[in-house]
Every structure is written in structure tokens, then in C-alpha cells.
Amino acid sequence: MLETIEDHSAEVSSPTENAIPETSTATSEPDSSVLPQTSITPAIKNKIQQVVNAFETGSAQGNYSGLVKYDDYTDPVTKTRSVQVTYGRSQTTEFGNLKALIQAYVGANGLYAAQLKPYVNRIGTKPSLANDATFCQALIDAGKKDPIMRTCQDTFFDKVYYQPAGNWFVTNGFTMPLSMLVIYDSYVHSGCILPFLRRKFVTAVPAAGGNEKEWINNYVEVRQSWLASHSNPVLRKTIYRTHCFQEQMMRSNWDLSKPISANGITIA
């Protein structure tokens, strides 16, 4: 489940928005034990992505053909909720970024490009395509049978989610792998680091003199509380994400060197 599951009645910035300036009112000293930026190695990046894949699909590798339909889209005007398609390796949504993925696939002349091209301008508009069997089957078939779709998805999830999360991580002075995991997961699940959750605690980001571990712990705590009490039962079920992060903090697994249990999947 992805960005449109979250509470869109709250203030939400775009995934590529720059860091929001903060003034530190925290009393703690900046964390002096942070890892260097090079701590986010290709192996660590892969582990981070595998954890989020497991959250989203129950598989560390993700499910490129995975298509589900959730009653989780809230219309920003009418505030009514409706069903939408959620698709792919780390699950992107019909009213979120699915159109961009399918545009890229059609542009790459995938095996199912001809079937999907007529739908491009309908993705993200009402009515939902969740009940269009031809559209849904073409997505499933492309994910199962076409290597071009896999390549497009890998590029897409990196460009649309991982890179903006990484930019936010660096701009705001974070350095630890667990911090990157928490931030990336918020980008995949919510589209960004949610501003209304940030306003619920006073710790500044490290770039503004705050303590990195304290900030991450506070953000996970408020996100956990929000998810657990959300009006949408689908969203309430996703607290396994924040439980996982809290477990890593308890185990001092800030460098992600230890195995992680994510949604029942062990990521070594």
C-alpha cells in the first residue's frame, strides 16, 4: 500500500519537496556517533529496499505482477473513499504514481505496451480502473512475463521514491542506515515525511542541530500512534512497519548489520 492510503486531509508535501526548515527546541546534544554518508552502500540500499518490498508484498524481492484493490483512495474534494488499483514491486497506486510507471513502460515498447497505451490518460482519473478486467490483466501479465516491465519498475521505484527519500535524508543531515530505512518507508507508504507528524514533536533534524536517533525515535512513535488510531482499518493494519523500526532501535541495529524481520520475512 502506498501514498494514497495516508491521510490526505492533512498537510502533505510532494515527494520531491525540499526539507522544511526547523528550529531546534530540543535539549539533547547532536549525536556524535553517526556513521559517515558512505554508510549507505549498495548492499545497504538493497537491504533497505528488500525490507520495504517485504512490507508491501510479503516478498523481499517484491512482486512485479502484484495487483491488489484497496478501498483506500480519499477524494481530495468530496472526501469520499473509493477502491483503486495498487501495483508492482513495491506497490504504487492508481491515483498516485501508477500513470508515470505505465507511461515509462509504454515508452519502452514493452510486450504489453499496445494493450496498456489506451489506458495511460485514464489512470488517475475517475472512475477507477479497478473493475476493468482487461487493464488489470495486462498489468499482471506484463509484471509476470515481460523483463522490460521489471526494468521499468526498478527504475521507477528508485527515481520516484528512493532518490527523493535519499535527498531528504542528506539535506536534513541524517547519516545512519536505519534512518534511511525509516525515511524511505515513509516515502513509499505516505509519499513524503509527513509534515503534520513532524509538528507533533520538537526535536530538530540533525542539520539543524538535533539528535538523529532521537528524531527517528520520535517520528516512528508519532507515526505508530497515528497509524494505530487511524479511521481507515486498512491503514491500522500497517503498524507492523513501525513495530519493525522500534525493534531495530531496541536492538541498536542502526547500521542494519543484523538480520531484520519484516512482515514475517527475514532480511539477512
Give descriptors for this structure:
mainly alpha; about 270 residues
Q: Could you write a compact summary of the structure shown?
A:
The chain is mainly α and 268 residues long. Helices cover 44% and strands 9% of the residues.
Task: Outline the structure in words.
This protein has 268 residues and is mostly helical. The protein has a single domain (3-267), classed as Chitosanase, subunit A, domain 1 (Up-down Bundle), CATH 1.20.141. 44% of the residues lie in helices and 9% in strands. It has 10 helices and 5 strands. The protein has helices at residues 42-57, 98-107, 113-116, 133-145, 147-171, 177-190, 195-198, 212-228, 233-236, 240-250; strands at 67-74, 81-87, 92-93, 260-262, 265-267. The strands form 2 sheets. A 3-stranded antiparallel beta sheet has the order 1-2-3. Helix 1 (42-57) packs parallel to helix 6 (177-190) and helix 4 (133-145) crosses helix 5. The longest helix is centred in the middle third of the chain and has 25 residues, at 147-171. The model is unreliable at 1-36 (pLDDT under 50).
Shape: globular
Proportion in β-strands: 5-15%
Enumerate the strands of the largest sheet in spatial order, edge to edge or round the barrel: 1-2-3
CATH superfamily: Chitosanase, subunit A, domain 1
Question: Please, how many domains?
Answer: 1
Q: Count helical runs.
A: 10
CATH architecture: Up-down Bundle
Report the CATH topology name: Chitosanase, subunit A, domain 1
* Overall average pLDDT: 87
- Quaternary structure: single chain
Distance between the termini: 23 Å
Query: In terms of structural class, how would the helical and strand content be classed?
Result: mainly alpha
Order of helices and strands: HEEEHHHHHHHHHEE
Give the radius of gyration: 19 Å
Q: So what's the CATH class?
A: Mainly Alpha
Describe the largest sheet.
3 strands, antiparallel
E-strand count: 5
Helical content band: 40-55%
Low-confidence stretches: 1-36
